[in-house]
UniProtKB/TrEMBL annotation:
Signal peptide: none annotated. Residues 8-233 form the Nucleotidyl transferase domain. It comes from Streptomyces flavovirens. SUPFAM superfamilies: Nucleotide-diphospho-sugar transferases. This is NDP-sugar synthase.
Amino acid sequence: MHTYPTQAVILAGGQGSRLRPYTDDRPKPMVEIPGTGTPIIGHQLSWLAAEGVTDAVVSCGHLADVLQEWLASAALPLRVITVVETEPLGRGGGLKHAAARLPDPSQPWYATNGDIWTRFSLREMAAFHAERDATATLALARPRIPWGAVETDAFGHITDFIESPPSPYLINAGVYVFAPAFTSLLPDRGDHERTTFPGLARERRLAGYPLPHGAYWRAIDTAKDLTEAAKELGAAHPQGA
């Protein structure tokens, strides 16, 4: 029987420059999905709690005080502490800095980027991770291409137009399961996706968990993403989420 992680890190320190003016006075995870009245991080914390997480460490940076004030005043479904980078540590360094505050370093943990809007079973992902005895597991998404695609035949005639087809490539979805040993492999400063992950991949200790068919996933990077997320949310859950 698997022991599912009960602790998680949320990386919430990004500048969110492509989401301006929404991020002029708040960090990206504090931007609200239109129509929900709740910031992105609020939805993430509810999701983590529903998946059995009892403790979360939120790594703050840009406009950290705004995020900390909201966390202090909100009715949260789990225990949350914040850590603030006093100097930029890079994504890997920031992850290691936050992981040092997890309540039990001998147990596995989840991590998520603070701008991800998704719903799927983290427990199933954790079971996938354990079955492969992986040191780290990445959720993998197949995003839609934001342009219309054109199909042609062998002679060069256009045969069809397809609006926003799924990408032929899987991408890192920004949600992770990590074994306890992973923390010590992170750089003190720098990007783990350029250092730690390639090393684990060479050793076959890095697993990729494709998001289940029909699972909702969107990275909130631009104002258009906010609009699309609100539309999709309204279509799927007319009463909100």
